[in-house]
Amino acid sequence: MPKRIDHEKRKEKILQTALKVFAREGYRDSNLSLIAKECGISRPTIYQYFKDKEEIYYYAVKLVTGRMFTKYADYAWTTKDAIVTRILNICNDVIDMAHKNRSALTALLDVMLILKKEGLNFSDVILKRTVKLHILFKRLLRLGISLGEIVVCDINKVTHHIVIMLESFSFQLAFLDDFNVEEAKEVMANYLELLKPQEQRFPNL
Q1: What is the DSSP letter of 149?
Q2: Residue ranges covered by each domain of the chain
Q3: Is the dihedral of CA 161, 162, 168, 169 positive or negative?
Q4: Which of 102, 107, 99, 98 is closest to 24 using CA atoms?
Q5: Which of 26, 96, 173, 198 has the most neighbouring CB atoms within 10 Å?
């Protein structure tokens, strides 16, 4: 009886292998033949899943962001943590994930920079894939304001600030050897602390 193939599992294996090859060889010097060889599959087989390296990049972004949003949405609406704590825990997890997958992150960003030089801009792709995270932050901020846990603020602007910091941390983590994860978390915590009403920040006054 022929062996049943789990195509999603195989696609993910190809993705993980491709990121390792990109990190080791550099994006320009990598190709689908090399990726297929390291996956233990034929080149025609890999073409059943991806037509080129760029499509692997799209899939990587889709896979990572999709999983992140599901995880964070589940946490955000099931926990009893304070709203600012929920936002901070989500941000800290993004930073931890970036740190844990540092080599893969560097490879992805390296691909993005190379393709940008070649006239292909992936910023719209990234934005579309992270829009749910933007919405989640906005919903949490709106809930926090209604509960009196967060001061009245420009929700769009605050969400933009949070995402900009996360993006900045990710780029620094990918390319700077001396990036300090705990300092990044402290910066985020200090920013979010300012969203709390004064009586919560200074309960003894």
Answers
A1: S
A2: 1-51, 58-201
A3: positive
A4: 107
A5: 173
Half-sphere exposure of 115 toward its Cβ, with a 13 Å CA cutoff? 17
- Could you give the 3-state DSSP secondary structure of residue 96? helix
- Distances in Å between the Cα of 188 and the Cα atoms of 42, 108, 154, 182 are 46, 24, 18, 10
Digit-coded pLDDT (tens) for 47-68: 889 888 878 877 877 777 777 8
Q: Is 151 in contact with 65 (CB distance < 8 Å)?
A: no
- Measured at the CA of 104, the angle between CA 103 and CA 110, to 5 degrees, comes to 90
| Pair of tokens at residue 103 | 């080599």
CATH topology assigned to domain 1-51: Arc Repressor Mutant, subunit A (1.10.10)
Topology given in CATH for the domain delimited by 58-201:
Tetracycline Repressor; domain 2 (1.10.357)
